[in-house]
């Protein structure tokens, strides 16, 4: 058998046997699953998903890592489960995870410590620390959804994840026991769920400053209107704007093997406009070069958008000019933000304070990611708000990192089969917010 046919065969085997779902009701096959998310808004600004794992089920708080390679949890602190199984070296699961590494553990066997097991490199993408950890399987359980409410609970009996030492939790929100990776690998959560339930390789997230959702699979996305008398606001593929997802050929993980591509999601920003004027930039920074440097990615672990130094300077200069034209009063800076303004003579709108509009122009002039006050600014107190972009310095790995503040109340969909990213722009324009998904269960 040729290598690629063999790979295919392995994938098929996995589909059939390893990632087999167990349905709480045999006839029920979910079209989509929903994961509730809360934001640790007081300290780390991380988005935390609630997932149930193990037998008996244990509720876990896991930091959402959009570009993460897989789900990893701390197995050192009280991991008890009758369904935990380490994945052997050179097993089909191990090749699905693209690992060749084989580990032993010189202590008594327990979850995270077994001999002859497949090794992965769980990555804390907040502190940029990777360690080694064994690949394992256990039960994972989530609620299904019709796009409007959660429904019946379903589980995957042999969901692949990596164990990590407790030390890897450093830097995560208090109470978090790992990270949930939604990246582009076959063992990341979206691919495993799509295989287990044979649904579209698609997922979407919608986060607000307090909470939100991740929805896996194909479904409409329904949110209650912010006016009680109005009907639900429903998004679907037709109401999103799409841009191609780009592949960065070089891994952006803290530790990786030569030849690995990045598990993160990149898009192609062509120009940036502020109040409709093009900002002059060194455009070579906007594409990804053969070393994997440059380009624009989406990140849920960066709380604010980070711009390479020369882009930061050009964008903030243009923003200051446009603010002067709008008679907005400048205030002292509030680290990490340099450009702050007074709320005085700054009218509020449905889309936030009436500051200059920032537009990321994508594959053509008609495909534009728009940032109004609600996404571009951060409120410091009742009097002051600041431009929520930070300086990434010279020669960063990635030139533009679109972070949490700029993603909030924007429904963002990753259509992996079509290799495209869909976005709604601010939900405020349609009188709703990302925290208005109705979590009242219909079962
Ligand atoms: C792994 O094998 C070594 C050497 O045979 C042994 O000392 C150790 O206890 C084993 N560890 C586990 C977790 O079984
Ligand atoms: C533009 O950026 C590229 C990539 O960092 C760099 O090599 C080049 O010197 C820059 N050009 C200018 C005019 O600054
Ligand atoms: C800004 O203020 C100046 C002087 O007070 C005034 O002439 C101008 O119309 C104002 N511009 C805007 C956009 O409000
Ligand atoms: C949430 O869903 C439940 C069940 O369908 C429904 O009874 C309730 O009215 C909904 N709440 C809102 C705010 O729409």
TrEMBL record:
It is found in: Secreted, Extracellular space. InterPro entries: Aspartic_peptidase_A1, PEPTIDASE_A1, Peptidase_aspartic_dom_sf, TAXi_C, TAXi_N, Xylanase_inhibitor_I-like. Keywords: Secreted, Signal. GO terms for biological process: proteolysis. Residues 47-424 form the Peptidase A1 domain. GO terms for cellular component: extracellular region; Golgi apparatus; plasma membrane. This is Peptidase A1 domain-containing protein. Pfam families: TAXi_C, TAXi_N. Residues 1-24 form the signal peptide. Belongs to the peptidase A1 family. PANTHER family: ASPARTYL PROTEASE-RELATED, EUKARYOTIC ASPARTYL PROTEASE FAMILY PROTEIN. Its main location: secreted. GO terms for molecular function: aspartic-type endopeptidase activity.
